[in-house]
Amino acid sequence: MEVLVEYLGQVEAWQSIHTLRNRKVVTRQFCEWLDGRKTLFEVDKRTVKRWMTYLLNDGYAPRSVRQKTYALSAMYRELEDWNEVPENPIEQIDEIEKLSQTRLDEHTDRQYLTIEEYETLVDACDTLRDTLVIQLLWNTGVRVQEAVSITEDAIDRENRSIEVETIKGNKFESSKTRTVYYKRSFGRTLRRWLDEGGRNRYLGANNGDDEGHLLVTREAPTMFVNRVTEIVRKVADEAGIQTELYVDQSGRPRNRIVGHLFRKSYGVHRTKNGMPIAYLTELMGHSDMEITREHYLKFREDDIQEAERTYAPGV
């Protein structure tokens, strides 16, 4: 269809490769589902809602359906501008914002680690490097991809702070950094790792290729994201507190305790302790406070009940 070729050509010229790939997949999925029902130009609100229902019933997470619907809406905005359709049918759908949960959200009522769970994880670490990884994620709230990019010269051990390159959408933002902080307990682990030979033992034969990264492996002078994921999974299994939430479409089990759960825990515990959300947004590297509020401040009912009893007036 010529209009789709023109639209995707425009996306390729003006948007990122990731956006182009996403728009191609969504357009193909929608057209395949639409086949025999209506033409692309006859789609209305009811048709789109049927497609959304089909995706949900097919096992897609609500948030994934929302993202796909937004991608489809971007196409229809262009078609409306080109007078190919009278209006964007997706703008009339109010239910899109309700699709904010991930599949993990649906399977657990507590989206953070308790302090007791964290301490259990630390106790279960059988190597210094595992302890370093677990404490780093807990203390700083950094994304896993940010963690593996930390270098030794980014660490200010006197002020117990780390300068972190912020990523957004799986890509590092140009010249965008932020400072995160850590507790004395992690400082002691850092000293053992950096000053007492812990890191050097992992470098081994790769010592000549040392790039100065904090996290290293025997195979490479920097740790990859999937290795951090493996360490978190292994420690959680050995601690006996891992939970399988569901099995995804490819047949892989999805666990509760993963690297990103530490980041959610970082936000929740600081908020519970009274940190203003504006400060938390800066520490987490978010561009907007609404992102922090919507995605990282998930409380249990007993948390809310406790807060009410703490802050309610005495009469």
From TrEMBL:
SUPFAM superfamilies xrefs: DNA breaking-rejoining enzymes
Annotated ranges, domain Tyr recombinase: 108-309
GO-annotated biological processes: DNA integration; DNA recombination
InterPro entries in the cross-refs: CB, DNA_brk_join_enz, Integrase-like_cat_sf, Integrase_catalytic, Integrase_recombinase_N, Tyrosine_recombinase_XerCD
Pfam families reported for this sequence: Phage_integrase
Single annotated GO MF: DNA binding
Keyword DNA-binding annotated: yes
Alphabetized UniProt keyword annotations: DNA integration, DNA recombination, DNA-binding
Amino-acid biosynthesis listed as a keyword: no
Record-annotated Core-binding (CB) domain positions: 1-80
Name by which UniProt lists this protein: Integrase
Organism: Haloprofundus marisrubri
